[in-house]
Amino acid sequence: DIVMTQTPLSSPVTLGQPASISCRSSQSLVHSNGNTYLSWLQQRPGQPPRLLIYKISNRFSGVPDRFSGSGAGTDFTLRISRVEAEDVGVYYCMQATQFPRTFGQGTKVEI
Amino acid sequence: EVQLLESGGGLVQPGGSLRLSCTASGFIFSPSAMTWVRQAPGKGLEWVSAINGVNSDTFYADSVKGRFTISRDNSKNTLYLQMNSLRVEDTAIYYCAKTDYDLLDYWGQGTLVTVSS
C-alpha cells in the first residue's frame, strides 16, 4: 500500500497569513496513464470531508482561489494564500493512483 | 444538487452484522462509482471500499476484506455496505462518497457504527 505522510500534523496560523501543508507518498503517484492522482480534502469541525483539490493542482467547483496545490512524483503541497476563519479544520491528502486508496494522517489548522 | 444520505448505523455486538445504505440523488447514479470511507472517533480518514458504476467491480481495504461487501442497486439509486464479523475496531462514522475515478467529489453526512458489548 502507498503510505501518505503529512507534515506538520498541527499548524497554528494567523488570520490573513499564508499556510502550507506538505504531503509525501512512499512511492510515485504518477499513474501509467501519465496522470498524478493526488487530492486534498478539508474537514471542518463536525462536518464530512470536502474535496478541495484534485490531480495535484485543480481546484474543485466552488473552492476559493486562495487554495492552491502543487508538486510532482512523491512530494506535494497545499497552500492557503491568506487564511480565513472558515479555513479552520483538518486537511487530508489522498492518493487515488492505486488501490487501496490511502489518506495522510491529517493536518489540523487552527487559529 | 447532489445529495447522499447514509443510514443503517447503530450499536452492534462484536461478531455481529450490520448493513449500511447510502441513498443518492441529484446525479445519474448508475454510471457513477461510489466509495465508503470511515473515520474512527477522533481519528483520520480510512478508505474502506469502492464499486465501479459500469461493471460493478469492487475493491476493499485489507482491514475489511472477507468481512465487508459493497454492492449497489441502481434501480433504487442506493449503495450498500454489508458488514459481517464486526470488531470493536470497526467503530467509526461511515461516509459514502460519489466517486469520479480519482475524485471523492461529494460526501454524505455519515452514519455512526458502534461495535461494543
Q: How does this model look, in words?
A:
The complex is a heterodimer of chains A (111) and B (117). Chain A has 111 residues and is mainly β. Chain A contains no helices and 11 strands. In chain A, the strands form 2 sheets. In chain A, strands 2, 4, 5, 6, 9, 10 and 11 form a 7-stranded mixed β-sheet that branches. A 4-stranded antiparallel β-sheet of chain A has the order 1-3-8-7, with no helix packed on it. The mean pLDDT of chain A is 96. Chain B is an all-beta fold. In chain B, the strands form 2 sheets. In chain B, strands 2, 4, 5, 6, 9, 10 and 11 form a 7-stranded mixed β-sheet that branches. A 4-stranded antiparallel β-sheet of chain B has the order 1-3-8-7, with no helix packed on it. In chain B, strand 5 (45-51) and strand 6 form a beta hairpin. The radius of gyration of chain B is 13 Å and the shape is globular. The model of chain B has no long low-confidence stretch (mean pLDDT 96). Chain A binds chain B through residues 1, 35, 37, 39, 41, 43, 48-51, 54-55, 60, 90, 92, 94, 96-97, 99-106, and chain B through 35, 37, 44-47, 50, 59-62, 95, 101-110.
Give the SSE layout.
The complex is a heterodimer of chains A (111) and B (117).
Chain A (H helix, E strand, L loop, with lengths): L3 E4 L2 E3 L6 E7 L12 E6 L6 E5 L3 E2 L7 E6 L2 E6 L8 E7 L6 E2 L3 E4 L1
Parallel strand pairs in A: 2-11
Antiparallel strand pairs in A: 1-3, 3-8, 4-5, 4-9, 5-6, 7-8, 9-10, 9-11
Chain B lengths: L2 E5 L2 E3 L5 E8 L7 E7 L5 E7 L6 E3 L7 E6 L4 E6 L8 E9 L2 E5 L3 E5 L2
